[in-house]
Design goal:
By secondary structure, this protein is α+β, with helices and mostly antiparallel strands. It is 34% helix and 20% strand. It is built from 17 helices and 18 strands. Helix 9 (289-300) crosses helix 11 and helix 14 packs antiparallel against helix 15. Flavin-adenine dinucleotide binds next to strand 3, helix 6 and strand 10.
Length: 535
């Protein structure tokens, strides 16, 4: 377990949170973008946190693995979405769980679930707590007598590596860095890098169907899992480890995206890859965003499968501190453990040039010789800072959040138009202005995954209502124009009403029936995916 202290309100470690000069610089940057001045607000202290006393306490048999200490309850109250950070910044921990358990074995989990089922206490599986959709929030309706947060951090080992099939059996509480560190000496990687990699866990990725950093091919955890082990209140759900199977509906597919409502995922066999040796990268600028969209579609349908194909509009690039002389920039990359990538990159640049893209600096081709850690180091530099900055923005009085979707290529233009038509006026009405930036995080042969960031000057004391208005406008626009309510952030509690509109009703009935079968007392994460009273 890490010695470093995690912030009780913001993203990440307290020692990595931007210092005062860093926040001043951010205030200047965001001030220039939003056309007004922002000043530093005082940072909250844990002493000012308000939380109710626990309604129930762990029984003696569970006491050695449990804690009802205020600090532990505070740290397990929220995920890390905008509304979580705002509530924690305000010191509002009114929905804190009654206690937190840290199981060390599957037997501990079985004992905990049996106790909670008998006593009518809700159990919320907790991986890294990086949910941005209220997935770990103890907002569980009126029925449960109490709420336990079940933190998986003690179960973080790579248990077995099977090199012939390039697979590993890994415990669900392993975070990205912890599991990669254990795979590195074997020259292997899971190669799953969500932006929350530093804290999110294998179990959380499976439970939310996480999407990794790579733009194409094996980037979703769905494709990297070959079997799952889950402890449900009704018994152990363990699938067989197979490369593929046509034996009826897949038990893994039901565990994937189950968001803690069926049971606790304890381990999984995952498919590994050799660490990449060859890399190629290039930046391509387009006069208009639409030109970049066209290039991405042709690239996604070309069979080249770039590892990165991240199209940023001008505002999105500016948010990352990059000025683009045009309407969009495409960050293009390939990587392989097996073969040099010059030909793939050259063909990709022909495609982007046909769509009007220019790559003045040309591609960069690299070959790593046994420097397995480099992928992670590069990833760290470019990716780890961003979440810290989002929390820092809250402390400057900036409303900043993201939302994401996926749609087919034929619907993208209409969806993008509808999102702008809905969000910009909502920002104007609520905050007197703001900006909306967009990018593609993933591209598929049949459509992109657009990802939007909105920012505006928050109205102090009204942050949550304003956020809800903008989020609702964006979500409705997305659903009305053929997108999904989430491409990789999951449903949780925040997307629940929109998920209801997206899913077929017979499927919802089947899922509710599956939950009743494995969780007859209805204790597993009530309120995620379904209304708490929906059973
Ligand atoms: C800054 C930031 C960047 C992010 N970037 C990405 C990204 O690039 N891609 C992406 O997909 N998501 C991203 N997310 C969202 C989030 O990180 C993912 O949903 C992630 O998969 C959650 O993992 P976790 O371990 O933190 O799970 P938690 O947040 O702890 O839990 C999420 C849900 O899974 C359930 N759960 C957790 N562990 C288990 C288990 N062992 N068994 C059963 N249920 C469990 C919980 O009950 C909850 O419903 C980001 C979030 C933040 C804050």
């Amino acid at each position: 377990m890490s010695e470093r202290e995690r912030s009780f309100w913001a993203w990440g470690y307290t020692d990595a949170f931007p210092d005062e000069p860093g926040r001043q610089a951010l205030a200047v940057q965001v001030g220039a973008l939003l056309g007004r001045e922002f000043s530093l607000r005082p940072l909250p202290t844990v002493e000012s946190a308000r939380l109710p006393p626990p309604r129930v306490l762990p029984p003696t048999s569970l006491a050695p693995i449990s804690s009802a200490a205020p600090k532990d309850r505070i740290l397990h109250t929220y995920g890390k979405g905008y509304r979580d950070i705002v509530r924690a910044y305000r010191g509002d921990f009114s929905v804190a769980p009654d206690w937190v358990s840290f199981p060390r074995s599957e037997e501990d989990i079985e004992r905990l679930l049996a106790h909670c089922a008998a006593e009518g206490i809700a159990v919320i599986p907790y991986g890294g707590g990086t949910s941005v959709v209220g997935g770990v929030e103890a907002n569980v309706g009126d029925r449960p007598r109490g709420v336990v947060s079940l933190d998986m951090r003690m179960l973080d080992r790579v248990l077995e590596i099977e090199p012939v099939s390039r697979s590993a059996r890994i415990q669900a509480g392993a975070t990205g860095p912890v599991l990669e560190e254990q795979l590195a000496p074997h020259g292997l990687t899971l190669r799953h890098f969500p932006q929350s990699f530093e804290f999110s866990t294998l179990g959380g990725w499976i439970a939310t169907r996480a999407g990794g950093h790579f733009a194409t091919l094996y980037t979703h955890i769905d494709d990297l899992v070959s079997s799952v082990r889950m402890i449900t209140p009704a018994g152990t759900w363990a699938s067989r480890r197979l490369p593929a199977s046509g034996a009826g509906p897949s038990p893994d597919r039901l565990a994937l995206g189950s968001e803690g409502i069926l049971g606790v995922i304890t381990e999984a066999w995952v498919r590994l890859q050799a660490r990449p040796r060859y890399r190629a990268s290039a930046s391509v600028t387009f006069p208009h965003f639409a030109d970049g969209v066209k290039a991405c579609r042709v690239l996604a349908q070309s069979g080249l499968y770039p590892s990165n194909c991240r199209l940023l509009d001008r505002t999105d690039a500016l948010l990352g501190g990059v000025f683009v002389d045009g309407g969009a920039v495409l960050l293009l990359a390939f990587e392989s453990a097996d073969h040099p990538l010059g030909p793939s990159m050259n063909r990709a640049l022909e495609i982007t040039a046909e769509a009007g893209g220019v790559c003045p600096e040309g591609p960069v081709l690299r070959e790593d010789r046994g420097e397995g850690a480099r992928a992670q180091a590069t990833y760290k530099q470019s990716f780890f800072r961003a979440p810290y900055l989002q929390s820092a923005l809250v402390s400057l009085g900036v409303l900043a959040d993201t939302f994401e979707t996926a749609c087919t290529w034929d619907k993208f233009e209409e969806l993008d138009f509808a999102v702008h038509e809905a969000v910009l006026p909502a920002l104007q009405r609520a905050l007197g202005g703001g900006v909306l930036a967009r990018r593609f995080t993933h591209v598929y042969p049949d459509g992109p995954a657009p990802y939007y960031t909105f920012l505006g000057p928050a109205r102090e004391g009204h942050e949550l209502e304003t956020w809800a208005t903008i989020k609702d406008a964006a979500s409705r626009a997305i659903l009305a124009s053929g997108g999904t309510i989430t491409h990789h952030h999951a449903v949780g509690r925040v997307h629940r009403p929109y998920f209801r509109d997206e899913r077929p009703e017979p499927f919802a009935a089947a899922l509710r029936a599956a939950k009743r079968a494995v969780d007859p007392a209805g204790i597993m994460n009530p309120g995620a995916l379904f209304e708490p009273e929906e059973r």
